Amino acid sequence: MKKVIFIVLVLLETLVSAQNKSAIDSVLTAFLNNSILYDAHVGIQLYDIQTRNNLLDYNSQKLFVPASIQKLFTTATSLELLSNDFRFTTKVLYSGELDINSGIINGNLYVVCSGDPSLESVYFSDYSFLKSLNAILIEKGVKKISGRLFLLDNKGSYSVNSNWLWGDIGNYYGAGVSSISFRDNTIEVYFNSSDTVGGPTTISKIIPENNQVTIVNKVVSGESNRDLAYGYGAPYDSVRTIVGEIPRSKKNFKVKISMHDPSCYLKNEIEQLLNFEHQNINSIDRLDTLLIYKSPSLLNLLENVNTKSNNNYTEHILLKSMCLMDSSLSIESAPFLMNDYWTNQLQLKHVFYTVDASGLSRKNLISPGIMNKLLIYIFNNNTLKSTFLSTLPKAGVSGTLKYLGIGSSIENHFIGKSGSMDGIRCYAGYFIKNESYYPFTIMLNNFSSTSKKVKEAIVDLMEGIYQNL
């Protein structure tokens, strides 16, 4: 009798599963027939971890520009190669002797940077390198340095990825990378706009200020309520031009652009804490430690990467991770080693291309199937699973997914990462239902419809999927 009951239950479960699969297929068909997607390149894969079967599989082996869902590869890489509590360190050293009576260090001051992208970052207000340095200076009674200030960068010059667009690198999300990172490598420029459309704007303030930098203002007042102003300028180019428009009738409207040289800004602010006599002191018998400053933990940094889609953090973290395998790597070469690493880890038979860490370049190419392989690998890895999942925002609740499906059935039931550019909209993550996880990747490229309409169509698809899981 028990055997008969078991067989009946198995048959019922199989029937229900088949019905659900049919319903999900119908949802996909309706999505693909949506007229706004007539010119879009679409790829989707939905996987059932329990049955180890694909519930949806459409163009899953085709290559797409991933945009920021590529950050999931960087997240996984750093969690595999660095410890969860890894912290970047910034050391402050000095040569010569400290005269306790006069408060003068008769030598030079050295700041040894390690690529900490959170150094004085707006995203971690509880951490401050400058406040920590100032506190130790007061504690030790240091008031003056007879020599000079040296910032030591063990990775060479400040640079951007050559695969990024000229229209990106002058803005905060295209800021460069080096061992010396400061204030998110970002300048905040505040504008006052006139009341008339097309009218001029004026710059009201710049944070942080730097008299070595010139801002050329070509911004006008516009009809849109959006920030449509963009910065232009390469690393070490001290002339930054901002063009475009901002909403009219605004006071102190903020536009963020990239720094030309973070070391210049860091040096300026350290020199505001101390008097430097700038004597030439070349002989160094030894270096004593004044401060060892540590960043937030890797896990905290990765939460910011995935909830804020922070390109600058992502690039620095990947470079630090891959340098454990090859210390000679640069911002250009680290993504290629990451590509090789995951080709091996996931035992891939098909190629994919990563030319940066953050997904900013349109030369990155990944398939939904490969993205899902990463999600499956992580879920089945007990070491990675909980930490990786903890960095992901929730649909309708947090981060870049805060407004995805808000008030719908997927709210709080999908965790993952979004990625978008002009003509690109992608999501990768996990549906969560009845304590079961379903890796899901959807990638849309080359659509001509508005991003808002495409997003609405994707939400409808995701709702239909979730309701039939």
Protein model, in words:
With 469 residues, the protein is an alpha+beta fold. It has 3 domains: 2-84 and 298-467, DD-peptidase/beta-lactamase superfamily (Beta-lactamase), CATH 3.40.710; 87-158 and 261-296, D-Ala-D-Ala carboxypeptidase C, peptidase S13 (D-tyrosyl-trna(Tyr) Deacylase, Chain: A, 3-Layer(bba) Sandwich); 162-260, no CATH class. It has 11 helices and 19 strands. Strands 2-1-19-18-17 form a 5-stranded antiparallel beta sheet, with helices on both faces. Helix 2 (71-81) runs parallel beside helix 7 (311-322). The two termini are 30 Å apart. The model is unreliable at 6-16 (pLDDT under 50).
The stretches of 5 or more residues where confidence is low (pLDDT under 50) are 6-16
Shape: globular
As for the number of domains, it is 3
Query: In angstroms, what is the radius of gyration?
Result: 26 Å
CATH superfamily caption of the largest domain: DD-peptidase/beta-lactamase superfamily
Tally of DSSP β-strands? 19
CATH class descriptor name of the largest domain: Alpha Beta
Give the biggest sheet: 5 strands, antiparallel
Return the average pLDDT rounded to an integer: 94
CATH topology of the largest domain: Beta-lactamase
Give the SSE layout.
Elements: H1 2-32, E1 41-48, E2 53-58, H2 71-81, E3 89-95, E4 98-99, E5 104-105, E6 109-113, H3 129-140, E7 144-145, E8 149-153, H4 166-169, E9 186-193, E10 201-207, E11 214-222, E12 228-232, E13 239-247, E14 253-258, H5 262-271, E15 275-276, E16 287-294, H6 298-308, H7 311-322, H8 334-345, H9 368-379, H10 385-390, E17 414-421, E18 424-433, E19 436-445, H11 451-467
Parallel strand pairs: 5-7, 6-8, 7-15, 11-13
Antiparallel strand pairs: 1-2, 1-19, 3-6, 3-16, 4-5, 9-10, 9-14, 12-13, 17-18, 18-19
